[in-house]
Every structure is written in structure tokens, then in C-alpha cells.
Amino acid sequence: MEKQKINVLIIEDNEAVRENLAEILELYGYHTTVAANGLSGAKMAIELLPDIILCDVMMPELDGYGVLNLLSDNERTAGIPFVFITARTEVDDIRHGMNLGADDYITKPFYKDELLQVIRTRLKKAALRRREEPATAHLDVADRGKARLEEAFAVADRERTFDAGAAVVREGEYPHFVYRISEGRVHLSRAHEYGRDYILAELAAGDIFGITSALERSPFHYTARAAAGPARCQLLPTEQLMTLINADRSISAALMHLLAGQVVHHSEQLVHQAYDSVRRRTALVLCDLDKRHGDEPILLSREELAQMVGSTKESVTRALSDFKRDQLVETEGRRIRITRPEALRSLLV
């Protein structure tokens, strides 16, 4: 059975550009329909329901913004990927179009590879969204935003593996990407003025970091390193993140929810570090790590544990020895396993 072709609707008033687009796309196996102005293009979109729409900005009768608004308000066409065609010098047009909800843009004069890449990316994103929608329809705004943010990381298709101890980002560097951990664990640490490093947090698969620096366009205030083993991270360019925030309020809600949770967690850590004993702080860190690791053992050197507790290696080692003597934990080298989690948590009361 012949594979069904992807249908592309081209709305462009310049005949030469229109024919050039159609010729390239049909050469690469797409089926094209063309419209010479915005009004007829909008009508064709509602009638034909193409897989993707390429639309010029400046056109007679109805410009590209009007077409986008019209189709966005129609349930039948609201989910169709929409790509603006604009002159390379029309920066304000690009920004305005993305703010209205366009998925992407190509600039005139365009290059074949750029055109094909934009279409492939937008079709892939639309397919992912269709698969996600049944599972996320019941979610609130922040949860939908989180799902779409994870989708954006996947669509960006940038992923790197960092060996144990390797720096993902360094304190003082300016952010070009935000990071989502897909495998392994990452430690966020900061250098004390006297040269000692303190681990601020341990992050695991699904956690995102770099958001604050990206939003503020400020240097990272920590160094992120792969922890006990290799860590794999997805990278989302900061400029792409800003575009998503402007285009989708659910992503803004998800980021606010994420940042608020981090503020609360870090504030609680600071309070415990200021007022609790080393023994209690060590128990607190171990309980927190146990919750995050689940059935897996905790892999930490005594130095790393001391950095997380905010004390000396010797003091933390003594506390750990006490826990081992009381049969609250088992240790073997870097490996720590909580054997009586409820008893260990009772030390926090």
C-alpha cells in the first residue's frame, strides 16, 4: 500500500515564490495545494484540513496574521502547524507572528534545506502533541505546560552524555541552553569564598536546571556535574525557551510552579543548615536522597555528603558511623543504603 502523502497548504501572493515552494516540496514527496491570497487560503484550510500551512505575512484581502487568527479560533484548524513566510529583514513581523501563536517561520529568500527542516520539525512536534493530548487533557495549566516543555526538549533533539564528575555547566558561565536530565544524576555545587565546595542539590531524571539564569540572562551561580555515574542531558536553546514562553502561557505557568518549588525546598535546606546539629542535618540529607533514589542505593563519597550537609567530612563521617551502629544504614565504600527509613526520619522530629 502506498504511503499517504503529507498535505501542505501554501498561501502566498507572489506567484514565483508560490510555484518555487510547491516545486521543491512535491520533488521531496509532499502533496501541495496553493492559494494566492489570505482569504482563499483560510477557506482552503478549513475545507481541506492540511497537515501543515505555509503562509506569507503581507498579502491582499487578508494578511498572514488575519489568517492565523481566523484558523486559531476554529476548532477544526487550531491544531494545524502554522509557519510564516517572511522577508529576512522583517524582524518585527517574525516576533509578532510567534507571539500570536505561529509555530515557526522561514525567511525569503529561503534555502531548500532550511525549508525541509522546518517542515519536518513542525510535523514531528504536531505528531507528538497528538499522542500527548489524550493523556494530558485532564491536567491543569501548569501540568500541561510541563508536558509541552518536555516535548520541546525532545523536539529540539539535542542530547549529551557527561562522564562521572564531568562539568555540565560551570559557575560564572552564561547560559546558552537549559538542561533536562534524561538519565543519571547531577550535583549542583557552589564554591565557598574560602575555597570549599558545597553541594546545593542533587537532581535526577526529569529535573530541569538553568531556568533562572536563562530568564535573567545572568551567569550560572553554581557548577553542575554528573554525579556517581554518567549523566545524560537534553539541551534546549535559551532563545527557543523564550519563544515558547511568549507563545504558550501554560509553559510560563509550569516554569513558575517549578521555580516556586525550588525556592521553598532551598529555603528549608538553609533553615536546617543554620539551626540543626550535624547528626540531624545528615539524617535530613539522607532521608531526602532516599526518597529520590527509591529502591536504589545512594552513591556518594563522604566528601560529597559533607558538601550537601554543609559540614566537615570528619563530622559527617562520625554521624554516619552512629547511624550504622544503630543499624539505620548500611555502608560499603560510596554505597549507602537506608535500612530503617522510619527510624532515621524520627531523628528529624
List the main descriptive attributes of the protein structure presented here.
single chain; about 350 residues; alpha/beta; Rossmann fold; Jelly Rolls; Arc Repressor Mutant, subunit A; 3 domains; 5-stranded parallel sheet; 4-stranded antiparallel sheet; 16 strands; elongated
Structure description:
The chain has 349 residues and is of the alpha/beta class. The chain is built from 13 helices and 16 strands. The chain has three domains: 126 residues, 3-Layer(aba) Sandwich (Rossmann fold), CATH 3.40.50.2300; 129 residues, Jelly Rolls; 72 residues, Winged helix-like DNA-binding domain superfamily/Winged helix DNA-binding domain (Arc Repressor Mutant, subunit A, Orthogonal Bundle). 49% of the residues lie in helices and 22% in strands. The strands form four sheets. It has a five-stranded parallel sheet with strand order 2-1-3-4-5, with helices on both faces. The protein starts with 6 loop residues before the first strand and ends with a helix. The mean pLDDT is 83.
Topology diagram in text:
Blueprint: E1 7-11, H1 15-27, E2 31-35, H2 38-48, E3 52-56, H3 64-72, E4 82-87, H4 91-100, E5 104-108, H5 112-136, H6 141-156, E6 159-162, E7 167-169, E8 177-183, E9 186-191, E10 197-203, E11 208-209, H7 211-216, E12 223-226, E13 231-237, H8 238-247, H9 249-275, H10 278-293, E14 298-299, H11 302-309, H12 313-325, E15 329-332, E16 335-338, H13 341-346
Parallel strand pairs: 1-2, 1-3, 3-4, 4-5
Antiparallel strand pairs: 6-13, 7-12, 8-11, 8-13, 9-10, 9-12, 14-16, 15-16
Helix pairs in contact: 2-3, 5-6, 6-9, 8-9, 10-11, 10-12, 11-12
